[in-house]
Amino acid sequence: MTAERLQRLSELRDPVLVAAFEGWNDAGEAASSSIEHLELFWNAEQIYEITPDDYYDFQVNRPTVRLVDGVSRRLEWPTTTFSTCTPPGAEHDLLLVRGVEPNFRWRAFVAEITEVADVAGVTSAVMLGSMMADTPHTRPVPVSGSAYSSEAAKRYRLAESQYQGPTGITGVLQDQLVAAGIPSVSLWAAVPHYISASPNPKATLALLRRLEEVLDVEIPMDQLPVRVDEWERTVNEMTSDDEEMSEYIRALEANDDATSTDPNALPEIDGEQLAADFERYLRRRGPGSGSA
């Protein structure tokens, strides 16, 4: 990394790292699309790129050729990029990390990311992921997560994941950051497993809404809610013609409704926490947001 880029990293204000990776951790492209959304609407500037040769099998993750202005060709290699941005009104900057889950040398890979985070003075981190699950597309997208402490889990109202088993680069990076003394939480959106088409804007929107709460800053959603409506109409049309699929979705809905109305499944309501959340919501929306 050049001295100029090192200087720019060191000048970030209490930066929060937000990361997502394509592949196993990115069902419906919901996580990587969330980072792309932030890069676009907050005019993120790319500041660093990991050299891919040591981490990727190019026969699995092949480089791609793109046309520039319909004339010249540009070769793009699978890699992980770092970009910075300053959300309007925020007291901290963001260090956005977006890439492809590596094929080799995971420990060296996360160590390199952690080194960049250390240079930037990252104060906390948020991992974004999405996974296939038995959830109906007709219901709100469940977002679960994990935190570095029970206090953080309560603060961010995370429905802590009970998952045990194989993990992806997101879980490995979170573990490495915590070990390095950087508090880190993860947010995971559940994507209906019977919808293989990508992207899934509904899951992206759900992740961004929860990220908005964690960062305590308003994220511009622009046309994303409109795309969600269009996506739902398309999926409804596709599934309504298949009676077996329709019956399966109704069963998922019934299970979802039964779970949501089970008194034992509802979290304890903290009045002070709700009040604090509401005040934070009004602050994000600016002066006069609480008026009728």
From TrEMBL:
Gene3D superfamilies linked to this entry: PAC-like subunit (3.40.50.10900)
Ranges annotated as spanning the membrane: none
Pfam family, one: PAC2
Top-level taxon of origin: Bacteria
Name of this chain's protein: PAC2 family protein
